[in-house]
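Hi all, long-time lurker, first post. I run a small reading group and we've been trying to get comfortable going from sequence to structure in the token notation. Rather than ask abstract questions, I figured I'd post a concrete chain and ask someone more experienced to write out its structure so we can walk through it together at our next meeting. Sequence below, copied exactly:
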Amino acid sequence: MTVEEDAGDKKDSGGTTAREPAPSSPPRLPGSILFLCSMNSIRSPMAEVIARKLLPPSVYIASAGVRPGARDPFVDAVLDEVGLTLGSHQPHSMDELEDDYFDLIVTLAPEAHHQALELTRSHSVEVEYWPTLDPSVVDGRREQILAAYRDVRESLAERISRRFGTALPPAS
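-- Answer (accepted) --
Happy to help. Here is the structure in token form:
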């Protein structure tokens, strides 16, 4: 076996050398990301906080809603369980953003996706739709509602990690 063969070349049945594809490199990180949902009170602020934890500080991350809602105490509770906080975040709309140019807009609700597509008609911005359950529609006991919020938290963390090639912190 030659050094080249040992480094990844393989001989097919006809004796021809074929190069195995190189392992895929991690996805290139955008310089700025906007997480967008309906009211910026549950899904998009959760995604923003999780992304800030998982991505390098060089990536500008923000969140907004199609319209502003009210801060949801269940979000604070489930983020606190994993050592994260919204801090002084108050829900706000896209119109209230400090910066309106993003490399990537991740939409988490159908209404937000339609709004993002309208917004980006005249801009070259990548838009991705990540359908995400609105946990506020779940009825039941407090623990059942919290479980729905935890599911959203975990699915967003997994999706962000997978999309941007970052490792999830170990479960505590």
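A couple of things your group might point at:
Residues 108 and 130 are 5 Å apart (CA to CA).
Strands lie at 9-11, 17-19, 32-37, 60-65, 104-107, 126-129.
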